[in-house]
Amino acid sequence: MKKNLLAGLALSALLFGTSAAAQNPITIATDATFPPFESIDAQGKLVGYDVELMQAICDEMQLDCNIINAAWDGMIPGLVSRKYDALISQLTVTDARRRIMAFSDIYSHPVFRFVGRQGEEYDFGPDGLKGKVVAVQTGTPMDAYVTKYHPEATIKRYDAGSAAYLELTGGRADLHMSYEAQIIHSFLKTPQGEGYALVGPRLSGQDAPEFGEGVAIALNKRSTELLASINEGLARLRANGKLDALDAKYFSAD
Q1: Do 119 and 193 belong to one domain?
Q2: What is the number of H-type helices and E-type strands within the chain?
Q3: Within this chain, do residues 94 and 219 fall inside the same structural domain, yes or no?
Q4: Does residue 41 sit in the same domain as residue 89?
Q5: b/e code 136-148 from CB counts within 10 Å (16+ = b)
Q6: 79 in Cβ contact with 9 (< 8 Å)
Q7: Which DSSP symbol is given to 102?
Q8: Are 23 and 72 in contact (CB under 8 A)?
Q9: Which of 40, 134, 144, 161 has the fewest Cβ atoms nearer than 10 Å?
């Protein structure tokens, strides 16, 4: 079923794609349920690391960009059908995704972790999570990893990136898996995260292919001009220190 869906999306990409850069304004979608990378503040404004990074690229390249909130499960089909010109939402680069989308240069290499009750002991070996409930966001690298390596666990899947924490704190899940930085900065550093801790191994794409090559901006495969502009913008931000400053702003140890 999954392979058929990917094949269909790949065909659509060829049918709907164009070689020219996206028309202005450029519409960039993000799933604003994944702080500190993307979320909506009390004033209803899109905020977060990815939002600021995308806007900085657009400013650097003088692109007219409109960054909007979109549902996670509709983002990739929306990109393929040209509803969106680009996606920025901590998208990991995998072989399966490369078949239906183009990607910018990678701008980060995330670490993935489990989070659970402080003081609890968990066995992350084969069959070790049998009887445990693990909450993940559906269609993510975390979903793919837990499904493959811990099939004996009861896996609960959620569309929103922050919904799994409600299951964890409500006692309806034993563990949640996400990006380490996301767990720390949006959960463990909040009152809701009291009594919880990172557990298990630190994992990356070097440990399992499900975690991909790194994080990048996704585009339609035919958007070659826009891809070149975005890569040039990323290169400039690396060279002028703005990317390092953004990393420090959101992920400083302080």
Answers
A1: yes
A2: 9, 12
A3: yes
A4: yes
A5: bbeebbbbbbbee
A6: no
A7: E
A8: no
A9: 40
pLDDT of residue 161: 75
CA dist 187 → 30, 35, 37, 101, 181 (Å): 20, 9, 13, 31, 10
- The reply to whether 172 and 239 lie within a common domain is no
- Residue 203 clears pLDDT 80, i.e. is over it: yes
Is residue 46 within 8 Å of residue 69, measured between CB atoms? Answer: yes
| Residue 43 in tokens | 């004033």
| C-beta separation of 214 from 109 below 8 A | yes
Residue 175 buriedness (CB in 10 A; 0-12 / 13-18 / 19+): buried
Do 145 and 122 fall into the same domain? yes
The CATH number that applies at residue 219 is 3.40.190.10
Q: Which residue range forms the structural domain that includes residue 53?
A: 2-108+214-251
Helix (H) or strand (E) holding 112: strand 112-117
Give the chain's domain count.
2
| Residue 31: band (very low, low, confident or very high) from pLDDT cuts 50, 70, 90 | very high
Do both 194 and 219 map to the same domain? no
Question: Please, what is the average pLDDT of the chain?
Answer: 90
Q: How many angstroms separate the CA atoms of 143 and 159, rounded?
A: 11
Q: Check pLDDT > 80 for residue 172.
A: yes
Whether residues 227 and 197 fall in one domain: no
The pLDDT tens digits for 101-124 are 999 999 999 999 999 999 999 999
CB 88 within 8 A of CB 54: yes
Q: Are 148 and 203 in a shared domain?
A: yes
